[in-house]
Amino acid sequence: MREEFEKMVATGKLDKNQVEALVQLTTSGYCMHRSWGLGKITTVDTVFARFIIDFQTKAGHTMDLAFAAESLKPISKEHILARKISDLEGLRQMAALHHLDLIKVVLQSYGGKASVDQIQQVLVPDVIKDDWKKWWEAAKKELKKDGHFQVPLKKTEPIVYQTKEVTLQDRLLGEFRAAKGLKARIVVATEVHRSMTDLTDKKAAATEVIAALNVEIATHQRTQPAVALEAIFLRDELRHDAGLPPAEGEITAKTIWSQDIKLGVLLEQVPAIKHRRTLESFKEAHPNDWTDIIRNTLNVVSAKLCRECANLLIQEGKWDLLKETLARLISQHSASSELLLWLAKERSDSFADILGPEVFRAMLSAMERDQFNEKRSNRLRDYILDDQQLLVELIGSADLEIIKDLTRALQLSPCFDDMDKRSLLARIVKSYPAIQSLISGEQTKQDAGLIVSWESLERKKNDYADLVQKKIPANSKEIAIARSYGDLRENHEYKAAKEMQKFLMARKGELETELVRARGTDYLNTKTDIVGIGTIVRVTDLNTNSAETFTVLGAWDSEPDKGIISYLTPVAQSLFNHKVGEEVEFDMGGTKKRYRIDEIRAYKTA
Prior knowledge:
- With 606 residues, the chain is of the alpha+beta class.
- It has 5 domains: 2-75, Roll (SH3 type barrels); 81-166, no CATH class; 201-430; 450-520, Helix Hairpins, CATH 1.10.287.180; 535-602, Roll (Chitinase A, domain 3), CATH 3.10.50.30.
- The protein is 54% helix and 13% strand.
- Strands 4-3-2-1-5 form a 5-stranded antiparallel β-sheet, sandwiched between helices. It has a 5-stranded mixed β-sheet with strand order 13-12-11-15-14.
- Helix 26 (454-483) packs antiparallel against helix 27 (492-517).
- The longest helix is centred in the last third of the chain and has 30 residues, at 454-483.
């Protein structure tokens, strides 16, 4: 095509400097336009001096040759984008059977290197339609073993293809020698450890890495003990897997812990993946006092570390000490917001005897303390707002007076804005309608008062106190104990305790509703001109001509054998507001009853 283009130059249809670009375009057959993307050149028309190109979004597009020379970039037939057009099925077969060949095509398409994100972007979903993560994990293992690919330790850095093959061991040791500082060397040494089974001489590689780490550990043990400790863990793992003996006089984890180090501060500096190993080494170095130190550390570390510390205590059979620590910090309102956040997330039945209204009080105190100290973390507040059941579960065992106090504390708290407060209060009312009036200060018609005697009100209050102060806490302990037996599917004690919990909480709700509506009376100064609450009524049954006497008292006063009836009964309701001499008719159990009122007198007189 070069001759054809040169003839067009001679006739003035093209400029001489456009020929080379057009030759490259026609030779490759594929091109890239900055707006229309990848295109395939289907026709070269030298008569009308134009290309016909199938772009991905613009098929059969006609383009002037002179304009094409200036605006199009030639794409090789071997480029991954071109091959996606010409041989997509072949690429899919390559992806299934030959991971490295496909990655090589991608890298060579982009100058010999590309990041993981670039590789994913060009292959998914056209070439790799299934699980990319699974495919990439398999491919990455092959890349690390193959000597032609340099796989960086950071995902953001590019993977590089090199013609000259370099063994995995040589590459990793080269990177380890070039790494600056102990942190950087730990990163490479970790990769050496992961690749031990694929190294040509793992003992030689481990020996070199361990020797270098020992030098760095010695210089970091006092200035950066967390980094030194991480290096010690890695060094010991390398030695174990390579079957090497310890070096004489090397620094151990016990050496680090013998220094004046605050456990909480060091833990926060160690990567999360090493938290458990760090706590185990601390326990080994402090066999006599590790329990007390870790219990104290609970209140100064992040929620994630609280979980690790608690798990270690539980694993070592320190359940009672852990619960004692939590209960003390909560009752004193000195628990940190991070500790309470962990407890909120972890609120399983194992902690049933700790979780309660006092936990929410402690949360309010912790958040207010954080605000005063200008801590910017709002993690606990956000969790309280996001978890729809947390507040309801915490106050589930509280009595009405405690709920009232908590409501006031929530309304006065500076930790939540007005909208968030309304949202939290609405959750309480939804689960415990009996306290609506405590929040709004209003009484609805539906919740109209119940007239009760002072004696029956006192009995009901005693029943409620016994429920919330004895029966519910005892049930929570039973759940926690039964939960510790494990295997909940066959744990009959646990199932029975949970069923009892449902019954007790339902009974608590009933009593709360009744107590909120209750209005006590002594029945003094009752009017006797009509039948009302606190009157004794003598009547004649007109069907049998027999005399009966009823004492009409409060909602919870009922002793039928003695003629004492609640004012809510059908008999009392039919007699209400009627005078002596009047007759009343009502239905009782399907039988029509007719009474004549003969006498009305007061139940009590001053």
